Amino acid sequence: MLRHLFAATLAIAVSAMPAMAQVSTASPAFPVKPVRIIVPLAPGGAGDVLARIMAEHLGALWSQPVVVENRPGAGGNIGAELVARSPGDGYTLLLGTLGIHGASAIYPRLGYDPARELSPVTVLGDLPNVIVVNPGLPAQTLMELVALARSRPGQLSFGSAGNGSSTHLAGELFMLTAGIQMTHVPYRGSAPALTDLVAGNIQVMFENLPTIPPLVRGNAVRALAVTSEARAPALPDVPTAQEAGVAGYVATAWLALSAPASVPEPLLERLNADARTILATATVRDRLAALGITPVAGTVAESRAFFASETIKWNRVIQAAGIVLN
After folding, report:
1. pLDDT at site 2
2. DSSP string covering 42-92
3. From the CA atom positions of the chain, what is the Rg in Å?
4. Where do the domains of the chain lie, and which CATH numbers do they carry?
5. The whole model's pTM is what?
6. Burial 293-311 (b: 16+ CB within 10 A, else e)
7. What CA–CA distance (Å, rounded) separates 298 from 300?
8. What is the residue-averaged pLDDT of the chain?
């Protein structure tokens, strides 16, 4: 859905690059001082790298420094609330995540409302997960995994980067879609979960794409499917979950550029145009491909609609699985 929704938009962005650049340089009085992008994640991951790529190119486009600040914690909501409380002048932006914009219902006691207090600039990119199993598991295909799980309800375990993480939600959605039950084992990050997967202490993971290809090549894990609508270039021989037999299953860890809801619409559109100009360049697209990220670059209106649809989707999963974090 996500890729189809924005494909036409990205094509328009590519053809309109000179026009958008002209609008950008003609817009008055922004920016006249440094801009900061709050990254609600720890340094080093794909989201952090994406924010730094955007900061580099926005800084060059605006002739002003664009600084990345990491503010991790509470599933990204510490950094997100900081941005929501910031002035609506465009000088404080957020690297938005699925957890913030699509699955905030996990946190019933949040001190702010992401849907009301944050606005999308654009969805930047789409990061698929890969369904991987320990090589010793007698499941060579995704449907064999489903059959095995049905024959052993609750006996197979899947690990995640933590309760409420995108890798946890992807697993819960898979169980809901396939009609199976596995036991969730949360870890403090993906690295220890992958270590236990390779060791055979857990059987399944729904891990973000960038970490998986080396493990597949080394036969440390077996990749059964990717969770995006299209196959991943980094794993071209691995089918999508829908191709592999689980109809309707799509679960990607998308990333966005967001702003306080008080940012005026003309400035929001200006930020959107500049971000889309950058995402349309070959250099940036190549750098994102190396991270396993597919550029999206929708309009403000399309991004708002996508946030709303993802919230409905993930709220259903959260309610069905009874996921609550305080």
Report:
1. 54
2. -TTSHHHHHHHHHHHHHHHHHTS-EEEEE---GGGHHHHHHHHTS-SSSSE
3. 20
4. 2-126+254-321 (3.40.190.150), 129-226 (3.40.190.10)
5. 0.85
6. bbbbbbbbebbeebbeebb
7. 7
8. 91
